[in-house]
Amino acid sequence: MWDILNEKLLITVDLFKSWTELDAAAKVAVPRDTDLATKSEYLMRFMRRKSKSLAETVVFSPNELSVGFCANKNELIFCLKYLAEKGLIEEDATAKQQQGFPYRLTPAGWATLDSHASPPDKAVAMVCLIPGKEPDLFWTQGISAGITLAGLTPVRADSKECANKITDEIIVGIRKAHCVVADLTGQSQLVYFQAGLAIGLGKPVFWTCEATELADKKLMVDTRQQIITPWTRDKLSEFAARLAARIIASRG
User: Fold this and answer.
1) In terms of Cα–Cα distance, which of 197, 193, 171 is closest to 184?
2) In whole angstroms, what is the distance from residue 195 CA to residue 123 CA?
3) How far apart are CA 184 and CA 214, in angstroms?
4) Strand segments (E) across 94-227
5) What phi and psi, each to the nearest 5 degrees, are found at residue 210?
């Protein structure tokens, strides 16, 4: 984290209770166990920072496991070989006498890093929901997956240090967002307020709610004129696809 952000991130045991809490606290994308692409990208970025010249070799050791969020040495080797097979890095046979795994970026690797250096800002979808109300899978396989499928970047309003308050940061986030996804499950007044603010700012709002709660028709406000996308815990992938389709349709 220090190597990427140039600042210290306080890690406490509370952050590891769920992916949701870790995602909210982290200032970089935290790859999941099988997220090979993100882990490999972090390894390449580390190599760029450590390389003083185009042909310089970077020697990896178990000390660099955290750079790519690798669980162990075998996973580190797996990611390095993946990058080598894609032609983005190459093993330095002349440095094999050194302890560790010597690799250097290839011309294709440098070009790839340069193309990602200043990516265009991706449209953001601000997500308003009750923090901790639903399991992590609702976020990772449901809302986040649907928004990503629609070509937007999901950002949770509760990832801000708001503690159930409307902060200037959240208002600015909603103002800058392309759209807002508001989950009504649990009937949070804060979510209704955030969605109402987005409507007042002229932002598209996509409503979602757990199917059983939606069927009970006990929503706090009249949403009969709104399309609410229901979801169930056992069909999150289908929900993600429906949400993505609605967002894509609104973007023309």
Assistant:
1) 193
2) 18
3) 9
4) 101-105, 124-128, 153-156, 179-183, 205-210
5) -60, 135
pLDDT in tens, 138-175: 888 899 999 999 989 898 887 654 444 556 778 888 99
Q: Which CATH class is domain 31-115?
A: mainly alpha
Average pLDDT, the chain: 82
* Buried/exposed code over 48-84 (b: 16+ C-beta within 10 A; e: otherwise): eeeeeeeeebbebeeebeebbbbeeeebbeebbebbe
Domains 31-115 and 124-250 share a fold: no
Q: Are 208 and 183 in contact (CB under 8 A)?
A: yes
Contact 128, 155 (CB under 8 A): no
User: In Å, what is the CA distance from 231 to each residue of 83, 145, 209, 242?
Assistant: 38, 13, 6, 10
Q: How far apart are CA 239 and CA 45, in angstroms?
A: 34
C-alpha distance from residue 173 to each of 98, 115, 126, 250 (Å): 48, 27, 7, 20
Kindly report the CATH number that applies to the domain delimited by 124-250: 3.40.50.450
